[in-house]
Hints:
mainly beta
Amino acid sequence: MSATFKSIRSLQPLLDRVLVQRFKAETKTATGLFLPSSATSSPLPEATVIAVGPGAPSKDGSIVPVSVQAGDRVLLPGWGGSPIKVGEDEYHLFKDSEILAKINE
């Protein structure tokens, strides 16, 4: 499914959703060998956060903020997320609770 908007920056996630872009697998080794597509087809578990929603309401009505910010590196599960394709780039929307960890390097 391809998006109808021109830029991913015009997309603002709602509630506790997080928009991420997964890292692309290397198609070439350090020694210059090209890897076959079957070796690079599985998605990498790391991604960069592009945008975050304001947070989800708690049972008492207060807003619980999202635990990551735009620009953070995160660890994702191998499944889940809603894919969004803009041009040749692919992004994913995850709930904040689906993100496994924040990478601090």
